[in-house]
Amino acid sequence: MEVIAEERQKASFPVREMTHYLDGGPAETELKERFMQELERDPFWKIDDYADISLAEIRERTMQKAKIVVHHLANEPVEVFRKRMALISIAEPAFWTRLGVHYGLFIGALQSQATPTQFSYWVSKGALALNGVIGCFAMTEMGHGSNVAGLETTATFDEAADEFIIHTPTLTGTKVWIGGAAHTVTHAAVFAQLIVKGQVHGVKCFIVQLRDTATFNLKPGINIGDMGKKMGRDGIDNGWIQFTNVRIPRSQMLMKHTKVSRDGTVTEPPLAQLTYGALIQGRVAMVVDSGNTAKKALTIALRYAAVRRQFAAKPDGPESKLLDFPIHQYRLLPLLSQCFAMHFTGVVMDKMYVDLTRDLESAQPGQNMDNILEALKETHSTSAGLKAFCTWTCLNIIEQCRQSLGGNGYSEYSGLSRMSNDFAVQCTWEGDNTILALQAGRYLIGCFRDVRKGKKLPPGVGYLNQLPSILTKKCPYTRPEELSSPSCLQEAFNVVCANVVKKVAENFQQMVKGGMKPDEAFEQCSAERFFAAKIHTLGYIFSKFSEGISSAPPSLKPVLVNLCSLYGVYTVVENAGVFLQYHYFNSEQMDILTQQVNNLCQIIRKDAIPLVDSFNLSDYIINSPMGRFDGNIYQAYFDRIRRANPAKPHPYFESLVKPLLTRSMAVEEAPEIGK
Amino acid sequence: MEVIAEERQKASFPVREMTHYLDGGPAETELKERFMQELERDPFWKIDDYADISLAEIRERTMQKAKIVVHHLANEPVEVFRKRMALISIAEPAFWTRLGVHYGLFIGALQSQATPTQFSYWVSKGALALNGVIGCFAMTEMGHGSNVAGLETTATFDEAADEFIIHTPTLTGTKVWIGGAAHTVTHAAVFAQLIVKGQVHGVKCFIVQLRDTATFNLKPGINIGDMGKKMGRDGIDNGWIQFTNVRIPRSQMLMKHTKVSRDGTVTEPPLAQLTYGALIQGRVAMVVDSGNTAKKALTIALRYAAVRRQFAAKPDGPESKLLDFPIHQYRLLPLLSQCFAMHFTGVVMDKMYVDLTRDLESAQPGQNMDNILEALKETHSTSAGLKAFCTWTCLNIIEQCRQSLGGNGYSEYSGLSRMSNDFAVQCTWEGDNTILALQAGRYLIGCFRDVRKGKKLPPGVGYLNQLPSILTKKCPYTRPEELSSPSCLQEAFNVVCANVVKKVAENFQQMVKGGMKPDEAFEQCSAERFFAAKIHTLGYIFSKFSEGISSAPPSLKPVLVNLCSLYGVYTVVENAGVFLQYHYFNSEQMDILTQQVNNLCQIIRKDAIPLVDSFNLSDYIINSPMGRFDGNIYQAYFDRIRRANPAKPHPYFESLVKPLLTRSMAVEEAPEIGK
Question: What is the pTM of this model?
Answer without folding.
Answer: 0.97
